[in-house]
Design a protein that fits this description.
Blueprint (H helix, E strand, L loop, with lengths): L3 E6 L5 H18 L17 E7 L2 E9 L8 E8 L8 H16 L5 E6 L3 H5 L4 E9 L2 E8 L1
């Protein structure tokens, strides 16, 4: 698999890119994980929010969004982290995190980063310097934990 990484400010997204993002998020979060929730939450097009995408040809295989720290109380918030089902097991998750941290450092240098992790992924994000903040909570029936990297 040859992957092209693209990180775009929301105002630069093409409609095909936005459609692919929303389609992948619905495929995994709503259908596969069986969570009926409002994925299109009004934050995708706010402020300086950016979208990090990994494309294999014309297929979106990995994605996450970076929410504008000015709208998030000072932290860049990583969210909607997703790998396409057919692309799992190829190390894309690690590449996605590496790319995200590079983009954050480039766009918002030395800004703290926050994410809400599924609890079983605590060790995974810990490898990238994230530490638990607060208590575990349940979101859409799935245990989560807040994690922060300063």
């Amino acid at each position: 698999m040859t992957v092209d990484w693209i990180c775009k400010h929301h105002s630069d997204l093409g409609k095909e890119q936005l459609y692919a993002i929303l389609q992948l998020r619905a495929e995994v979060f709503v259908v596969e994980q069986q969570c009926a929730y409002q994925d299109v939450d009004g934050q995708d097009l706010e402020g300086d929010t950016c979208h990090l995408m990994a494309w294999d040809g014309n297929q979106l295989v990995a994605y996450l969004r970076l929410l504008d720290p000015e709208l998030q109380g000072g932290d860049v918030v990583i969210g909607r982290v997703v790998i396409a089902p057919h692309a799992r097991g190829a190390g894309l998750g690690h590449a996605l995190m590496d790319q995200a941290l590079e983009q954050i450092e480039e766009r918002w240098p030395q800004t703290p980063i926050y994410l809400s992790a599924q609890t079983h992924l605590q060790g995974y994000y810990g490898r990238y310097g994230f530490v638990v903040t607060g208590e575990e909570f349940v979101e859409d029936g799935i245990p989560h934990i807040g994690m922060r990297r300063s």
